[in-house]
Amino acid sequence: MTNVVDAEALILDLMPRLPARTLPLGQASGRVLRERINAERDQPPFDRVTMDGIAIAHRDWENGVREFEIVGIQAAGAPPLAITAPSQCVEIMTGAMLPSGADAVIPVERIWRELDKANVEVTLEVAARQFIHPRGSDRLAGSTLLEPGCRLGPPEIAILAGAGRFNVEVAAAPRVAVISTGDELVEPGQPVAPHQIRSSNDWGIAAALERHCGATVTRALLKDERDLLLARIAELHDENDVLILSGGVSMGRFDLVPGVLEQLGVALVFHKIEQRPGRPMWFGMSRDSKPVFALPGNPVSTLVCLYRYVLPALSRALGLPVAEQEQVRLAEELNFAPDLTYFLPVTLTWSADGTALAWPRPTNTSGDFVSLANTTGFVELPRGTETFPRHFPARLFRW
Ligand code: AMP
Ligand code: MG
After folding, report:
1. Which one of 126, 266, 334, 383 is most buried, by most CB atoms within 10 A?
2. In terms of residue numbers, what domain contains 224?
3. Separation in Å, CA 69 to CA 55, 120, 247, 269
4. Which residue owns the Cα nearest ligand 1 atom 16?
5. In a structure prediction context, what are the per-residue pLDDT tens digits for the chain, which is 399 residues long?
């Protein structure tokens, strides 16, 4: 049996890098960037006015001028006007380029107009270069704005647009086959007999994959029949980058998955992890270096293994850096001593001092996935501890 830390490391080390592809900017949200993005121009590209008002020469102000002659009106997007003589000003709008000869802006709230004159409060303090966002003060042209491996959220998408990019190189969406095995399984929408159950694992897995890594998911429901499993898993392997199976990895007579995978040339990396739930998890690499995760079928185990191992592995394959571990504290004392690493479902609240508190939400066995409703995720508790006191720190995995 492999321990949790080794299992994670073995998986991460073997993850292939998924290919990159070019996408239009409008489809890139949530993807992982795979190229460096440099500034197209200085940022901002010109001395940008940050207030509606008048642009003046600060020397005039120092010389005591309080009434300025308005020589023009300049909107954002207009080429710059010029101040060419003392006491002149340009009526200016936020976002406009600073007129030549001007080096300070006085906000509109501080002036009053009389015909073509702008008068300013005599006692106002006016600093040189006030209300000007200087050219290149954020970034210079050619400097790096985004590094490969960053997740493209709303700010990053805006930065790409600001850099003039309408196409961007991102990690390709992983093609993932999500395969449920079990003679008892029936699709939602189909009639279900008393001795059968609904297949829910594949739906939960597919939802997680879509949310966390934009995967293109093919679901398959397969009976526990060796020849059928051999044929369909081989096809799904050829058509996908990653295989995630659920069910059929324990010690029962119809737990055919490990044997079938090895027969298909998938090299076993480990079988069974020192953890609860999810102990029977199986992991291997195919001859084409495609990862194959075979998760136990009990629904809580399936989701725990997915979040603890599979999703971090897919993040690695997409090119994301290792995420910082989110730590929370147990909201109440737990009086038990797990002999294996223990994954406990929790709901999060915050105390007045900002501590994230994890309230245990244990399930009735690893088959009870309905008790996971409205939980935040689960915490990882080490084995060999006698009791877990209140405020015990634990790593959180969020759904
Ligand atoms: P197994 O790992 O195949 O021994 O399955 C363990 C338990 O998980 C059994 O009670 C199965 O019925 C249940 N199970 C297996 N696959 C699924 C699935 N796709 N959806 C819901 N429950 C499942
Ligand atoms: Mg089964």
Report:
1. 266
2. 4-19+172-318
3. 11, 12, 81, 80
4. 297
5. 999 999 999 999 999 999 999 999 999 999 999 999 999 999 999 999 999 999 999 999 999 999 999 999 999 999 999 999 999 999 999 999 999 999 999 999 999 999 999 999 999 999 999 999 999 999 999 999 999 999 999 999 999 999 999 999 999 999 999 999 999 999 999 999 999 999 999 999 999 999 999 999 999 999 999 999 999 999 999 999 999 999 999 999 999 999 999 999 999 999 999 999 999 999 999 999 999 999 999 999 999 999 999 999 999 999 999 888 999 999 999 998 999 999 999 999 999 999 999 999 999 999 999 999 999 999 999 998 889 999 999 999 999
Angstrom CA distances, 73 to 76, 83, 281, stand at 10, 12, 71
Residues 257 and 183 in one domain: yes
Encoded amino acid at 289, one letter = S
Prediction pTM value: 0.94
How close is the Cα of 218 to the center of ligand 1, in Å?
19
Contact 54, 90 (CB under 8 A): yes
Same domain, 185 and 285: yes
d(CA 211, CA 46): 40
Q: What is the CATH number for 271?
A: 3.40.980.10
Regarding the beta carbon of 246 and ligand 1, being less than 6 Å apart is answered yes
Most ligand 1 atoms within 8 A of CB, residue of 195, 197, 279 to mutate: 197
CA–centroid distance, 224 to ligand 2, in Å, is 7
Distance 346 CA to ligand 2 centre (A): 27
Which residues have their alpha-adjacent CB atom under 5 A from ion ligand 2? 182, 247-248, 297
**Which ligand 1 atom is nearest residue 246's CA?**
16
The CATH number of the domain where 344 resides is what?
A: 2.40.340.10
366 lines ligand 1 (CB under 6 A): no
